[in-house]
Amino acid sequence: MDDIYDPKFVKAVFDRCSDRYITFSLVCSFGFTERWRRQCVAAMPAPAAEKAHGYDLMAGTGEVWPHLLQRFDGIRAVTAVDISSGMHRRAMERLHAHRAHRIEFIEDDVLASDLPSDSADFVISTFGLKTFKPEQHARLAALIARVLKPGGVFSMIEASDPKGWWLRPLYLFHLKVVLPLVERTLLRGAQDFSMIGTYSTNFGDAAQLAAMLRGHGLEVEYTKYFFGCATGVAGCRPRHPHR
Ligand SMILES: C[S@@+](CC[C@H](N)C(=O)[O-])C[C@H]1O[C@@H](n2cnc3c(N)ncnc32)[C@H](O)[C@@H]1O
């Protein structure tokens, strides 16, 4: 049995998905993923630095950049990190657009990354949390606390299990039955997006990650979006650690 949380396995899933990822994610979420990316950016406190530099972790094909650069005009540079060469290639195609000079792309496993300490005015991540299991979330939390400068800000969002919502069974039916069926029919029997459904339902929500980030001394706000179908964490690294 494959370990679905092994970074090599995850990379292969996204390498195979990369061509169709943008369309599938938009259509199958009825446009919600775009709205959630915008809300994730809106939840991030403004970076204090005038010409801010930061990281987009699990950047995919750079879906969040338009929202990020539109809201925070003063951002000087975004370093995008993603393990998938397929997603990377797609992102670079998009980079031929006018924002290329502000984006650098690193193809790397975030969990094994040696990004420099105290190097980021902000960290953003959209829909990159679900392919990690709890001990990997712990590593991610440690990385974010380490790379943020004092006063640095962050925001992350992920599709989640809307526990307690009366329409939850319908939502799970959509994820576990409708999406795999659409994929098998329209995408010639591929099973990759069904994997994304499995990751999403296993993920639960971002509450545990919020606790891990607080454990590293970060100030964290935990938010539920649309009845908990997505959850997010946003906040900052205090300039002066609390005693
Ligand atoms: C669902 S996509 C999200 C892409 C994009 N941020 C968005 O808003 O749609 C998740 C991305 O996380 C990347 N990823 C998964 N595990 C990773 C890891 N260990 N290090 C870096 N990137 C990773 C995948 O290659 C994929 O591009």
Structure description:
With 243 residues, this protein is α/β, with parallel strands linked by helices. It has nine helices and seven strands. The chain has helices spanning 7-17, 21-28, 32-43, 65-71, 85-94, 134-147, 168-186, 192-203, 207-215; strands at 53-57, 77-82, 103-107, 120-126, 148-159, 219-225, 230-236. It has a seven-stranded mixed β-sheet with strand order 3-2-1-4-5-7-6, with helices on both faces. Helix 6 (134-147) crosses helix 9. The longest helix is centred in the last third of the chain and has 19 residues, at 168-186. It is globular. 42% of the residues are buried. The mean pLDDT is 89. S-adenosylmethionine binds next to helix 1 and strand 2.
> Uncertain regions: pLDDT < 50 for 5+ in a row?
none
Discrete helix count: 9
Major sheet characteristics:
7 strands, mixed
Structural class determined from secondary elements: alpha/beta
Classify the beta-strand content into a percent band. Answer: 15-25%
Oligomer state equals: single chain
The strand count comes to 7
Outline:
The chain is an alpha/beta fold and 243 residues long.
Secondary structure layout plus pairing:
Blueprint: H1 7-17, H2 21-28, H3 32-43, E1 53-57, H4 65-71, E2 77-82, H5 85-94, E3 103-107, E4 120-126, H6 134-147, E5 148-159, H7 168-186, H8 192-203, H9 207-215, E6 219-225, E7 230-236
Parallel strand pairs: 1-2, 1-4, 2-3, 4-5
Antiparallel strand pairs: 5-7, 6-7
The chain binds S-adenosylmethionine (SAM).
The site of S-adenosylmethionine (SAM) has 23 residues, from α1 and β2.
